[in-house]
Design brief:
This protein is α/β, with parallel strands linked by helices. The protein is built from 16 helices and 9 strands.
């Protein structure tokens, strides 16, 4: 049975008087630190000597080294990147763990796949926002809150769940709702979205672009129609707000009939998609992907760099930039100067 927690299920008194140590002041770390502080909790930031440390100081936090923050805090939020987390944990956090402390993760990856194995004498919990860091902060300030996946991995004190829910409330997450599941399930769902749904959606989008451009339609018009106008993003927002059925009713009858009647011709893709998605799911569940990513990581980072270079040279990148600049979309608007850019020959 699925368990979902809200504000009424949490009490800040469960962590009142304790010190929160935010270990890593990146996108999630900065947002979570500010939310916790605004909820009345004592927060100290642990970070290496870099621009994030400077940012934390400008934001008014006391900033110390990660080991010092781990020693001082009783509620530790380990928010450094996944790939460096095991080393940071082993060298700078584990030596300062003691009975009664709580270690909180924002992603179950390193616990799920065995890269970190915390001692049994501490509470280990998960509060995984389903939102990027900027959204975590903005939704707190707006009062809306944000959904999270939560889990209790170790309950050494007998109060792990109460402390976890109190922290989720202080972050602003129980306003929207916190769904409980295991750290392994959270990590699997997150990786599946990145490795199966995302690439499949990307190929559908690229196929649509290629089909229309090859048929002679201007790339700028194609990109504007498919996603740069913001209509797709708005439809997805309404999908969240209203649900699939009611969102579809917002569109014209022509749109509704065309979507419903022509969707049938794509049903034969289901077996192929499911086969490939199940393959991705099995790689994730078995730990094969985690092992692959943890081995020869420098080669993997070089692979990412080369892939980015190839992407930067694709016509689509130029088409996007020109269209975004012409229609004053996002950051490209600030780069617009001189005469209106003309469509380039394909």
């Amino acid at each position: 049975m699925t368990t979902i927690y809200h504000d009424e299920d949490a009490n800040l008194d469960a962590v009142r008087g304790e010190t929160v140590a935010i270990l890593g002041y990146g996108n999630q770390g900065s947002a979570q630190a500010k939310n916790l502080r605004d909820s009345g909790l004592a927060v100290v930031v642990g970070n290496i000597d870099d621009s994030y440390r400077d940012e934390a100081q400008r934001d008014g936090f006391e900033v110390v080294s990660i080991p010092e923050a781990a020693a001082r805090g009783s509620l530790l939020f380990l928010l450094v990147p996944d790939e460096v987390m095991p080393e940071v944990y082993t060298r700078q956090v584990a030596p300062y763990l003691a009975p009664g402390k709580l270690l909180c993760f924002a992603h179950g990856y390193n616990i799920a796949f065995g890269f970190i194995d915390p001692p049994e004498f501490i509470d280990v919990v998960l509060i995984a926002p389903r939102m990027i860091g900027a959204g975590v902060r903005q939704s707190y300030l707006s009062g809306e809150g944000f959904a999270s996946f939560v889990a209790v991995h170790h309950d050494a004190t007998g109060r792990a769940r109460q402390r976890m829910l109190a922290l989720a409330k202080a972050l602003g997450s129980t306003r929207a709702g916190c769904l409980e599941l295991s750290m392994k399930d959270e990590a699997t769902l997150d990786l599946f979205t990145e490795q199966a749904f995302g690439p499949a959606f990307g190929r559908v989008l690229m196929t649509a672009i290629d089909t229309l451009v090859e048929a002679g339609y201007p790339p700028e018009a194609v990109l504007l129609e498919l996603y740069l106008s913001g209509e797709l993003a708005y439809s997805f927002l309404q999908l969240r707000e209203l649900g699939a059925l009611r969102q579809h009713a917002l569109h014209s009858h022509t749109s509704q009939y065309g979507t419903i009647s022509r969707s049938l011709r794509y049903f034969d893709l289901d077996p192929i998609l499911k086969e490939k998605m199940r393959e991705s799911l099995e790689e994730i569940r078995s730990g094969a992907f985690a092992h692959e990513w943890s081995t020869n990581r420098e080669e993997k980072l070089e692979f990412i760099k080369k892939a980015r270079e190839i992407q930067a040279s694709l016509p689509l990148t130029r088409w996007e930039e020109e269209t975004r600049r012409a229609f004053r979309i996002g950051e490209a608007a600030a780069k617009r100067s001189g005469p209106r850019p003309q469509a380039q020959p394909r």
